[in-house]
Amino acid sequence: MPKLPGIDHEKCMSCTDALADKKPVGNRVVVVGGGLVDCEMALEYLQEGKRVAIVEALDHILSAGAPIPLQNVQMLKDAFEYYHADIWESCRITEVNDQGAVIADKDGARTVLEADTVVMSVGFRPLPSMKEALENLNIDVYQIGDGREVGSIMSAVWEAYEVAHSI
Ligand SMILES: Cc1cc2nc3c(=O)[nH]c(=O)nc-3n(C[C@H](O)[C@H](O)[C@H](O)COP(=O)(O)OP(=O)(O)OC[C@H]3O[C@@H](n4cnc5c(N)ncnc54)[C@H](O)[C@@H]3O)c2cc1C
Predict the structure, then answer these.
(1) Is the CB of 19 under 6 A from ligand 1?
(2) Do 61 and 92 form a contact (C-beta atoms < 8 A)?
């Protein structure tokens, strides 16, 4: 979770908490982050009839991280057009407050996106806790998958294959 004013506001939640249904998501949702997880969540909210805004710091949604299959990208973009998603590219969230999310564009111009819920989904970091837990056991430990670098199921399986092949 990024450190910004209002990050502890009751309207604000992480995408993993939202996915785990830890708190209800309101009818006006701002999804902060325009990656694959975030856009898929946004689509689900749109299909539930919610009003959704997506805020992405980069110039285009679905452009960060590992390449996303074109079919997924096109399907999501078509769906966002169909459901009239409100997409804010090249914008960063600066604050969460009682009104919703305050965002700023590249020139610093501010816009308030009124919202009941602000879902923060700005990426994941590796948590190498399993490697740390195994390190003192005097066995060979190979770190793969999200514990090494956040990726996908395919990259984790591929790394496992490469390690197994090299032993
Ligand atoms: C919301 C979301 C949606 C995603 N959607 C997709 C998708 O559509 N397609 C795709 O390819 N990828 C997707 N990913 C990414 C994918 O889930 C991960 O890249 C993949 O699961 C990584 O596999 P892993 O085995 O490295 O880690 P994980 O799947 O995270 O497994 C690690 C396991 O180790 C456990 N663990 C950690 N530390 C310890 C410890 N000390 N002792 C014991 N157990 C421990 C954890 O609890 C966890 O169960 C998504 C990720 C998220 C968060």
Answers:
(1) yes
(2) no
